[in-house]
Structures are given as structure tokens and as C-alpha cells.
Amino acid sequence: MKVWVPCDAAAVACGADEVAAAIASAAGLRGEEVEIIRNGTRGMIWLEPLVEVERDGVRHGFGPMTPEDVPALFEAGDHPKALGPVEDIPFFAKQTRLTFARCGRTDPLSLADYEAGEGWRGLRRALDLGAEKTVEEVTTSGLRGRGGAGFPTGIKWKTVAGAEDAQKYIVCNADEGDSGSFADRMLMEGDPFCLIEGMAIAGLAVGATKGFIYIRSEYPHAIRTMVAAINAAQSAGIIGDSLMGQGPAFDLEVRVGAGAYICGEETSLLNSLEGKRGMVRAKPPLPALEGAFGKPTVVNNVLSLAAVPWIMTHGGAAYAEFGLGRSRGTIPIQIAGNVKQGGLFETAFGMTLGTLINEIGGGTASGRPFKAVQVGGPLGAYHGPDDFDLRVCYEAFADQGGLVGHAGFVVHDESADMLALARYAMEFCAIESCGKCTPCRIGAVRGMETLDRVAAGDREAIELLHELCEVMEKGSLCAMGGFTPYPVRSAIRLFPQEFSRIEEAAE
Amino acid sequence: MTKDDRLDAILAAHAGREGALLPILHDLQAEFGCVPADCYQPIADALRLSRAEVSGVVSFYHDFRDAPAGKHVIKLCRAEACQSMGGAEMIARLERALGMKIGETKGDVTLEAVYCLGLCACAPAAMVGDRLVGRASSERIEALVAEVSA
Ligand SMILES: Cc1cc2nc3c(=O)[nH]c(=O)nc-3n(C[C@H](O)[C@H](O)[C@H](O)COP(=O)(O)O)c2cc1C
Ligand code: SF4
Ligand code: FES
């Protein structure tokens, strides 16, 4: 019998290790031959631990499993947690998995599995095409940065390729600090060679020989898997002195963050990488020209880089066939929080918010009515049911005073306290501000105080809060201070009564 | 090995590395449970920095401690997805049950806030030592604490 039990941190957090141990011991007791493979997650987190058992060549799902559910796996008859063929589960079947094509299917650290699933084909094609045509292919794909800002990846690469310097770097931003986001983690734990391949292609394309993956310290599993995958790729001669033994040199190293959200901002990340305080740098100079250690540097998010192998394998034009408007390709949406079916859903840009929450997510986990969804992390706006026809793409959300960001969607039910959430947004900014500019450093603290006054029924405080938001938005150097007003203002706009309730009670 | 030997070994392991300060600080904390202030000067000397620069970096990052934490560190996620699943209430219940607040150490146990563990689709989330806990409740975390400190 062949069995898969995910090793992804979310599966483990829900008991996957205990389930795997129970399967091994049940098999031992019965004297049955069982091969247990620790795969990545399929991304259907509400079903984790999601065990898969091969029957007649088809992988059948069972979940969410507990050790007590294990013995029945070995018995004839219907299993209470049976889900049928795992790839027929609607949440999975409805996706367009390009970046996450292998994730959940394979053993993340098996080079054989990777190779069998189209692995290294993109890199081979890039080696054949050469640097210039590789940059062209990525430009044709229309790929835009998945880290939040949506900057066209091809243009960034072209700038770095054009910079004359003996030393250039590829820096992968794996700082993924947004609440509601876990796609970077899932990819690094579930298909680490895909990121390695994407970075190798980037190195080849721009003439960089060294890459760093900056992973937040809150992700110990991802760090371990990435380090092991890099070692394996080096031993196999894929990266190192020569890419696949035929190309230029390209080597990789993991660097670990130290618990600072702001280090996800690219210039702060570069300072941190250099061993400095994670202060944001003013731009220009662009990191593309003066990045890590003052050298031309590509800084890209995990998902941007991990999209590249597919693009190089199938062509930029094929990737650009998916999507909507200027948002091309697929977006790995992470739907989380108070939602029945939380997880990762990769789909072409263009799905409506309502479909995502009600059909894909299945509504709230609590069963209480939906109230609001925060999109794009702690700096993203809250959206209510009136926005359900918004299509997931960069432009539509920007037009509504919000952002798609790293595509984390955090659902709240009617019990959510919007004033408390607005205050939390200011508090988070106060905790995580790098301290470089006054509107953010001081403004966030004033914002918390002002919201406390609002809560206490102070009539003038709301006006003051709006002025403060204005100052933060206009006067901050980066989006930390600049966008913190988004969740605050949107909460007030959607639920004004919650910001005047005490006042009414006092009258 | 004396403390100085252990520090020297760590510094030697990173000699010549680009941007070595954070990796050194992580290794020091793994070795000593914190970044002792009397290490600032030797680190500064090894990396040709000023002591103030080293001290400034240590204080910037939330991870680095100036004194060791309790033997059992419990990290509770305070971020939005966990809040949407009752995380704040869970933290309050746990604080009451353990008779301590986030940020405090009592006996062997240190309670800390964390801002997202990437477990937002199985919220609320926590970490007890190295162990990740999804769909957490205060009862479950209390049981795990009892288990590890038994
Ligand atoms: C406060 C703040 C936090 C950020 N956090 C992240 C992050 O965790 N991961 C990320 O890839 N980009 C993050 N970004 C965006 C980066 O600055 C940068 O745009 C991105 O890494 C570029 O890569 P991309 O073009 O592939 O998206 C953040 C930006 C700001 C202002
Ligand atoms: S807005 Fe905040 S985080 Fe950004 S540079 Fe200014 S102080 Fe630093
Ligand atoms: S918000 Fe708590 S784990 Fe992400």
C-alpha cells in the first residue's frame, strides 16, 4: 500500500506527524507492507491532515484524519473520512495549478519526483535560449511581482541584465509576514526545487552568480526544507560552479530573518541581509542597480520566481493567455481566517470576490453571517458584501482603495469588532515600524490613542483620525506607514456605526 | 569550552562571510539562549564594526533576547486571521489559566506574541517550543505545556 501524509507545517500543526506514526504502527501490527511518503500539502488546509491512499493507480483522499481514524484505512468498507479521488474534490479540480502543479503530488525533496513532473525543463530551455531571450520570454508572460507591488518582472530583470558589474545577485524575498498569507511557505515546503529552478533561471537571465533566499525565522520548517533542497541540488550538479554542468556558475544560500515584518520591504530586507538594522532605504537608487552589498540585484517574491519555470517550459505567451486586463497568468489565492474551506487556490486572475468567499471558501467557518474580508495583509483594506462583484486583479482592487498584495484573503464573520481591528492595524504599524519617518513612527502610536478616544466616545476623535491617516498616507516613505490607513479607513467607511456606538450609548 | 571559546568558534565559523552579523547573532542565541551584551565588543572587532552598531542591530530585531527565555517558550499568534477565529479570546483565557501575561516569564514558561505563523487557514495558531499547533484552544495549549514541563 502506498500512502501520502503531508509534511507541510499546516498539516503538521493539525497532527500529521501523529497520523503518520499511527499508520506506520498499524501497518506493523498487521504485518502489511506500507510505503509512507511525506508529500507537500495540496492546499486544502481544512482537510488536513489529508491522507492519500493509492487504489488502482488513483490517489484517494481521507481527511481531516486523526490517529483514531487510521485503523479503518486498513479495513474493507466505507471510511468515515473518505473524500474520493483527491483530485476530484471540487476545491482542487476547479484550480489552474501552474506554479503549484507539483505541490502536494510529490515528495518535496525527491529529485526523481521533480524531474518526472517537468522539473528543470524551464532551466534547460533557458540555457538553450540564452540570457536575452529568457528575459524576453518572462516579459512576454506579463508576470508581475507577486510580493505585493505588482511590478513587471521582465522589466526588473532587464534593468539588472543591463547593469554592468562583475557581481550581481538574485535575492528571493521569503519574508512573507502578511497575516492570511502562506503560499510562499507552502511552496518552499512542498516544492523547493521549483524555487531553486526559478532563481537559477533568473541568475542566468541577468548574469548573477549568487542568490540569497531570505526566509523569516517564523518558518523553521521552510528553512529546513530549503536548505536540504539546496544541498541536494548542489550535490546533483544542478547549481554550483556551473548550472547543469553546461551553464555559468550560480549558487544559493538561505538567510534567516529575525522577527521584523518590515524586512519584507525590499530595501529593508537588503539592509538586513547585509547585517544592518532593517531600516528602509530611500529610492533611488533602485535595488536593481544598487542592491545587495551595493551590487545590481533582482529582488523577487517566492511566487514570482516560482512562476518562471512554468513560463520557460510552456512559453510566456501560454502564461499570458490566463488572466484579466493587465493582470496576466495565475494568482495563488490564500483564503484564510473565519472560512469553512480555507487554503490555497491557484486560479487565473479574474474570479469575483463573492465566488471566492461563498463558493470556493464555502462561507464562514462559524456559520454566522459574513461581515468583511481583509485583502492583501495588514496593510490591505476591508471589503464588505458590496464588493462581491470585484474581480481579483491588481487594477480592480486598487480602484476600490484597496490592494491584492500577496493575495491573502482573511474572512471575518459578524462577530468581528471593527474598531478593535482598526486599532490593531495601528498597533501593528507601531510595533513593526522601522522608525525612519515620523508619520509612521509617531503617527501609528497617535492612531492607537485616537482610536481609544473613539472607543471612549470622543466626538472629535474621528475627525482627528482622518487627518492622521492623511498625514501617514502622504508623508510616509514606504507602504508600512503609507497603507496602514487602508484597513482603518475602510473599516470606518463600511461600519461607521461601530465607530460611534459608545457616543450614542452615552447620550 | 569556556564562553569565550564558544564565541570564538562561532565567529570563526562565519569568518569572511558577506553580511555575517545576523547569522552570527542567530548562532549565539542558539548557543547561549540570548545575545549576551558582553559579546558585542568581540563581534564588533571581528566584523570591524563599532560596538554601537552591533548593539543597534541586536535591539532592532524582535527575535534577539538580552536574557534567556524560560525553558518553554509559547508563542501565540495575535494577527488578523487568528483574531477572526477567536485568537484574542483564546490568549486571554490562557493568560488567566497560566496566571501570566504575554511578554512574561513565570518559572519555566515564557509567553510571547507572534505575528503570523503561516497557519492562517487553520487558525488560531501557536507554537509550544518547536511544536506547531493549529486549530488551537487554550485547553490544548495548557495540556501541551503540562506535557512538556512534566
Ligand atoms: C511593509 C512591506 C512589507 C512587505 N513584505 C513583503 C513580503 O513579505 N514578501 C514580499 O515578497 N514582498 C514584500 N513587500 C514588497 C517588496 O518591497 C517588494 O516589492 C517585492 O519583494 C518585490 O518582489 P516582486 O516584484 O517579485 O513582488 C513588502 C513591502 C512593504 C512596504
Ligand atoms: S513608513 Fe514606517 S516602515 Fe516605512 S520607512 Fe517610514 S518609518 Fe520605516
Ligand atoms: S494570522 Fe495567525 S497564523 Fe497567520
Automatic annotation (TrEMBL), chain A:
- Cofactor dependency: FMN
Q: Which keywords belong to this entry? A: 4Fe-4S, Iron, Iron-sulfur, Metal-binding
InterPro entries membership = NADH-UbQ_OxRdtase_51kDa_CS, Nuo51_FMN-bd, Nuo51_FMN-bd_sf, Nuop51_4Fe4S-bd, Nuop51_4Fe4S-bd_sf, Thioredoxin-like_sf
Xref: Gene3D superfamilies: 3.10.20.600, 6.10.250.1450, NADH-ubiquinone oxidoreductase 51kDa subunit, NADH-ubiquinone oxidoreductase 51kDa subunit, iron-sulphur binding domain
Looking at the record, the residues that make up the NADH-ubiquinone oxidoreductase 51kDa subunit iron-sulphur binding domain are 419-464
Xref: Pfam families = Complex1_51K, NADH_4Fe-4S
Spell out where the chain crosses the membrane: none
Q: Provide the family line.
A: Belongs to the complex I 51 kDa subunit family.
Protein name as annotated: Formate dehydrogenase
TrEMBL record, chain B:
InterPro entries registered for this protein in UniProt: NADP_DH_HndA-like, NuoE-like, NuoE_N, Thioredoxin-like_sf
What cofactor does this one take? [2Fe-2S] cluster
Q: Which domain of life is it from?
A: Bacteria
List the Pfam families: 2Fe-2S_thioredx
Which CDD domains has this protein been placed in? TRX_Fd_NuoE_FDH_gamma
Which UniProt keywords are present, listed alphabetically? 2Fe-2S, Iron, Iron-sulfur, Metal-binding
Q: PANTHER family this protein is in?
A: NADH-QUINONE OXIDOREDUCTASE, E SUBUNIT (PTHR43342), POTENTIAL NAD-REDUCING HYDROGENASE SUBUNIT (PTHR43342:SF2)
Q: Which family does it belong to?
A: Belongs to the complex I 24 kDa subunit family.
Q: Under which name does UniProt file this protein?
A: Formate dehydrogenase subunit gamma
From which lineage does this chain's organism come? Bacteria, Pseudomonadati, Pseudomonadota, Alphaproteobacteria, Rhodobacterales
